[in-house]
Amino acid sequence: MQLTSLQMFCMITVLIVASLPSIVAATKVKSDLDYSLAGRNASSFMVAGTIVATIVGSAATVGSAQMGFKVGISAIWFTVGCGLALIIMGNFFAKPLRNSHLTTISEFLVIKYGESAGPLSSVASTIGIFLSIVASMLTAVHLIAGAFNTDLFISGVIIIFIVLSSVLLGGLSGSGITGLIKITLIVLTICVAGVKAYLDLGGAAGINVLFPKEPWLDLIYGGPQQLLYNCISLIIGVVSTQSYVQAIFSAKDSASAVKGCFIAAAITIPIGIPAVIIGMATYKSNPNINSIDALPWYLLNNLPEWLGGVAIAVLILSSIWSISGLVLGCSTLITRDIFKAVIGIKDTKKILWFNRTSVLFITILAEIVVFKNINSYVLDWTYLSMALRGAGIFLPMTFIILFKEFVPKKAGLLSMIAGISVALTWKWFFPLAQDTLFPSLAFNLLFLVPGVLIGYYQKNKKN
Predict the structure, then answer these.
(1) DSSP string over 121-140
(2) Within its chain, how far is the Cα of 80 from the centroid?
(3) Distance (Å, rounded) from C-alpha 439 to C-alpha 25?
């Protein structure tokens, strides 16, 4: 991937300018509440911006184009699944979570299941989110190395700089602002490129002529079972992630939280479409390139020179801002549920300092893990991440919202222990198993369902 001087200039300019709002946001941060939750005064658009900043990362752009290059239109299901997850979050989770006036998912679980639930959910969430950070960094390191024609170490340094500038100072306010900028830039570049790719292929009629139905035009390529598994995994992963729930906690009221989820869903669902079409157009133009380069190759070779440079900056920012949102969620869990809850730190300035220090530490640690596993597979990290988050959080949290007082404390706590234990050990006992998520959920239900039935029975008996 070779950039011209004009493309390089435009790319660097966008990277610098897009980082400035976070620095400005830092001047308004006076406490840990300002940093972690934007002072609980975020509008629906800021909530949406915070979510989009994290959820529309390299998988939604580069990943969708890569799969479009390999299998065609069925690649749109990643962003569709993410959008469905946000709709479900808005309908069922946003209002009770925002009305709890808490900061982390762990705090929400502690209220119902007791103090022991806090460390369990915090550890599962922190490790799960950290693995997602590693997965995102694996993509970002290679993308930046190609854009700047530099080695992987320098690429890692650039990632650290952009992550810290976008979230270290401004916190959630900075993340929300960068999300709104990301939306604008994606519409300007990737959506424009998607329209051009569609026209280059001859529209719908041309696509039907150029591509055979299998696999290119099959919406459920891989079968309905695989599609269902992927969508369920995405829904569980999104709903169980501190970074997205943190955006809900930051809303000024529950209505803003709900609207923010719906706005984010409306933005996220269609973003994959132009990326997939670009992947298909790249395949017809240059089928021999590495599939992961499909999107950047098309942007550099088919857009006006200046816009191609801007577009590469958008890809880099999409990837790194996604990392930033995940890092902020991870640091908030560490700060609130370890430094504050366990160690007992109460001073807001000290908590703010610990939060910012955690951002720095997590970013550097993730870089170290990436370079130790530079040739590993992104999806391996992603699936393990989803399993850990879903196993310890999704169903225990869902049962609190759906069944409230009918879930016994002990049943909820045992379900968390069982789910997390299965997620960590399942492949040791069953090495050929493709996933650990569904077995973990089954063990959650093994305790939650009888617990709810017992709760109903005891309540009716009292009445």
Answers:
(1) HHHHHHHHHHHHHHHHHHHH
(2) 14
(3) 43
* Domain spans, the chain: 5-374, 383-463
Query: What's the burial of 282, exposed, middle or buried (CB within 10 Å: 0-12/13-18/19+)?
Result: buried
CB of 46 closer than 8 Å to CB of 38: yes
Residue entry with tokens 């169980």 = 240
**CA distances from residue 24 to 20, 39, 169, 329 in whole angstroms, order as listed:** 6, 16, 9, 21
Rounded to whole angstroms, the Cα distance separating 309 from 219 reads 32
Pair of tokens at residue 180: 């709104």
Over residues 325-335, the pLDDT tens digits come to: 788 878 877 88
Q: Report CA-CA distances (Å) from 167 to 79, 142, 369.
A: 24, 22, 21
**What residue type is assigned to position 338 of the chain?**
I
Count of other CB atoms within 10 angstroms of residue 19:
21
Distance between CA atoms of residues 121 and 36, nearest Å: 19
Which residues, at least 6 apart from 332, have a Cβ–Cβ distance to it below 8 Å? 36, 103, 104, 242, 246, 355
The DSSP secondary structure of 142-199, one letter per residue, reads: HHHHHHHT--HHHHHHHHHHHHIIIIITTHHHHHHHHHHHHHHHHIIIIIHHHHHHHH
Between vectors from CA 16 to CA 14 and to CA 17, what angle results, nearest 5°?
65
Helix (H, G, I), strand (E, B) or coil at 251: strand
Q: What is the token pair recorded at 334?
A: 């560490």
Q: What CATH number labels 5-374?
A: 1.20.1730.10
Closest CA to 200 of 271, 284, 304, 300: 284
193-239 per-position pLDDT tens digit: 999 999 999 999 999 999 998 889 998 887 888 788 788 888 888 89
d(CA 246, CA 261): 12
Q: To 10 degrees, what angle do helices 395-403 and 437-462 make?
A: 30
Q: What is the mean pLDDT of residues 33-44?
A: 64
For residue 390, give both structure tokens.
């879903």
pLDDT tens, position by position, 108-127: 898 889 888 888 888 888 88
Residues 53 and 247 sit within 8 Å (Cβ to Cβ): no
